[in-house]
C-alpha cells in the first residue's frame, strides 16, 4: 500500500540502500561555522525589521523578514542533519524511510518558499524603479502572499509524502534526494518547473528590467543615490544558480559514479552551495533596505492608516520624479 504509510517492500528497499559514506569532519566543521554566521545574520535582520517596524513603511521588508524566517528554518532544521551525515559518514535517518521523505518534502517546501519570496522582492524592486504602486501589480497584501507561498510550496512537495518511491538517500550528497524511479523523476521535473524555473524566470526578468531602467537614465538615478543598486542586482541574478549543481547531480542515473560516490568531496560541496542563498540573503537584502529605502517608501501600503489625502501627496512627489526620468 502506498501513501502516508510505507509498504514493507519500500521499507526493505530503503534499508538495503547505501547509508554510509566517508566521514569528512573538517568539511562539517567549516559548514557549521558558515551556517552559524548565516543564522546570526538572518536572525539579526529579522529582529531589526521587527524592532524598527519597517513593515509599517516598506513593502519589501515584509518579504525580506519572511525570507529570513524561512532561511532560519533551513539552517536550523535541514542543515544540521546534513552536517551530521558529513561529520559521521552515516545517514541520521537510515532507520526511517518516512523521515527521509519528510526531509525531501521540507527541503522542496523551504526552497520553493525562498524562490517565491525572492520573486516578490524582485517585483517590489521593479515597482520601485518603474514608479508603480504595489497594489496595482500584486493585488494581495504581503501577509497573504507569504501564507500563499507556503501553501503552494507544501502542495508541490506533497508527492514525497504520499509516494514511497520518490525519495532515497544519496550517499554522495549526504542527504535524502529524489529517486531515479518514474515517480521520483516526475517529482523532480515538477519541482524544477514550478519551484525553480518559473520563479527564477520572472525574478530575472524583473531585475533585467531594473538594469534597463538604470542604464537608460544613469544621471537621474545617480542624483537619487540609486545607481549603485545595480551591483545588488547582479548578485540577485545569481540566486537561482546556487542550487543548480545539486539538482543536476540528483538527476543523474543512480549507477553513475558521481551519484554513488562516497569519497568525492565536490559532491558534498554541491549540497553546501545549494544553501548559500540562506547565508548571503541577509547581507544582500539588508543592504537593499538601506539603498532603496527612500524609493520604497512611495510603494507603502499605509494608505489605509493615513488620512485620505496623505498618500496622494506622496504619489504627487513620486510622479514628479517619474516625469524627470
Automatic annotation (TrEMBL):
What GO molecular-function term can you cite, just one? G protein-coupled receptor activity
Keyword ATP-binding present in the record's keywords: the answer is: no
SUPFAM superfamilies xref list: Family A G protein-coupled receptor-like
Q: How does it sit in the membrane?
A: Multi-pass membrane protein
PROSITE patterns referenced in this protein's UniProt entry, alphabetically:
G_PROTEIN_RECEP_F1_2
Q: What is its main location?
A: membrane
Gene Ontology cellular component annotations, sorted alphabetically? plasma membrane
Membrane spanning residue stretches: 26-51, 63-88, 108-130, 187-210, 231-252, 264-292
User: Where does this one sit in the cell?
Assistant: Cell membrane
Keywords tagged on the record: Cell membrane, G-protein coupled receptor, Membrane, Receptor, Transducer, Transmembrane, Transmembrane helix
The UniProt record lists the G-protein coupled receptors family 1 profile domain at 41-285
Q: Which residues form the signal peptide?
A: none
Q: What name goes with this protein? A: G-protein coupled receptors family 1 profile domain-containing protein
Amino acid at each position: 500500500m502506498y501513501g502516508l504509510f510505507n509498504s514493507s517492500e519500500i521499507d526493505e528497499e530503503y534499508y538495503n540502500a547505501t547509508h554510509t559514506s566517508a566521514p569528512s569532519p573538517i568539511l562539517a566543521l567549516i559548514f557549521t561555522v558558515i551556517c552559524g554566521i548565516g543564522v546570526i545574520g538572518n536572525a539579526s535582520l529579522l529582529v531589526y525589521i521587527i524592532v524598527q517596524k519597517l513593515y509599517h513603511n516598506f513593502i519589501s521588508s515584509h518579504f525580506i523578514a519572511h525570507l529570513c524566517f524561512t532561511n532560519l528554518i533551513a539552517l536550523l532544521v535541514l542543515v544540521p542533519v546534513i552536517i551530521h551525515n558529513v561529520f559521521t559518514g552515516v545517514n541520521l535517518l537510515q532507520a526511517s524511510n518516512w523521515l527521509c521523505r519528510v526531509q525531501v518534502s521540507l527541503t522542496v517546501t523551504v526552497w520553493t518558499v525562498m524562490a517565491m519570496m525572492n520573486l516578490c522582492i524582485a517585483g517590489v524592486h521593479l515597482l520601485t524603479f518603474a514608479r508603480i504602486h504595489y497594489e496595482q501589480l500584486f493585488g494581495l497584501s504581503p501577509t497573504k502572499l507569504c501564507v500563499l507561498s507556503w501553501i503552494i510550496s507544501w502542495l508541490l512537495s506533497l508527492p514525497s509524502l504520499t509516494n514511497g518511491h520518490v525519495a532515497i538517500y544519496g550517499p554522495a550528497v549526504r542527504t535524502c534526494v529524489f529517486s531515479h524511479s518514474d515517480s521520483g523523476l516526475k517529482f523532480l521535473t515538477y519541482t524544477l518547473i514550478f519551484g525553480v524555473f518559473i520563479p527564477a524566470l520572472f525574478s530575472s526578468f524583473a531585475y533585467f528590467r531594473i538594469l534597463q531602467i538604470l542604464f537608460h537614465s544613469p544621471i537621474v538615478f545617480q542624483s537619487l543615490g540609486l545607481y549603485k543598486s545595480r551591483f545588488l542586482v547582479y548578485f540577485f541574478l545569481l540566486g537561482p544558480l546556487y542550487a543548480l549543481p545539486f539538482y543536476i547531480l540528483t538527476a543523474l542515473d543512480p549507477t553513475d559514479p558521481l551519484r554513488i560516490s562516497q569519497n568525492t568531496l565536490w559532491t558534498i560541496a554541491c549540497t553546501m552551495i545549494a544553501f548559500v542563498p540562506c547565508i548571503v540573503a541577509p547581507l544582500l537584502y539588508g543592504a537593499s533596505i538601506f539603498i532603496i529605502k527612500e524609493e520604497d517608501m512611495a510603494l507603502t501600503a499605509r494608505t489605509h492608516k493615513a488620512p485620505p489625502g496623505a498618500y496622494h501627496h506622496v504619489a504627487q512627489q513620486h510622479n514628479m520624479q517619474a516625469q524627470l526620468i
